[in-house]
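During the no-cost extension, the postdoctoral fellow (Dr. R.K.) reprocessed legacy sequence entries with the updated structure-token encoder. One reprocessed record is reproduced below for audit purposes.
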Amino acid sequence: MLSYLLIITAFLSLIGLPLSDAEAEVHWGYPDYNENEEFPKWGGICDTGTRQSPINLSLRGAIKGVYEKLEGDNYDKTITEASMVNTGHSVQLSGFDVELELEGGPLKDDYVLEQIHFHWWSEHTIENVRYPFEMHMVHRNTKYPNMTVATLNKDGLVVMGVLYHASLERNRVVDDVLADFVPIMSYDQINNPIQIKTNFKITDLVPSITSYITYEGSLTTPSCNEAVTWIVLAETFPIGIDQVEAFKSLEYERGKTLANNYRVIQKTNDRAVIIVENETKRVSGNGSASLTSSTASLLTILIAGLLLKYFN
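Re-encoded structure tokens follow.
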């Protein structure tokens, strides 16, 4: 019986079907860079796929795209109920009491927001600069009944990536998330969701969707299914180094904290990287910074990279 189960598990991994939570927990994790560990092979399509994520986003090599407006339905509505959980790999928010949909832009269908999670040190890089924090907003194509089915289809998911740059300015929304963080930090609380006390709007997290970079890719965690249209915003938002450090206290094993949870950069493999610039913004009042192709933008990227090296 054990041999049979192992064969089935290996087969599912090879064809790229998502493993159960228990199986995934056994088969993958992040290296401890403090111990000079190399990034592990996760198996299956994670190692053999040709449209894997994350990638380095080079603005100089991007194609300019023109689409209708990309917008979120009910993103300005207050969410009064949501759950937060330590997945053992990240902090995740889900179970929103407002139906939140993304439509327009490069998307042919409507996509409903299923969950939000965070990565300390960004997964995507811009011109090879890695930022201290990245938020992923995972949306499911509404024509598929659930995440499992959506993950098996090329147009199944849209993930909006939001990058954060190092700043002396604290991020108020991140502080709100951290206010509910302590009860889920320990290993004993993995996969044990709590109801958060904070009320928020998606527009608090993403004030506007104007310029962005889009490409076809994959989940950045096993099973790495190549089912994702990525939309990475071309504005970054400020975050304090101490706020990032707070996330690093999340336990993934008893007595072991998650110092980082980003996947290494994957090969682009001649995929089209499309930049959509609906509005030109250099620096806005909320502290966001544009990553468009101006000289000022490139200086912002370089300065952010120097800040990260200094504080790491």
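The chain has eight helices and 19 strands. The helical segments are 2-15, 21-27, 45-48, 147-150, 172-179, 202-205, 241-247, 295-311. The remaining legacy entries will be reprocessed before the final report is submitted.
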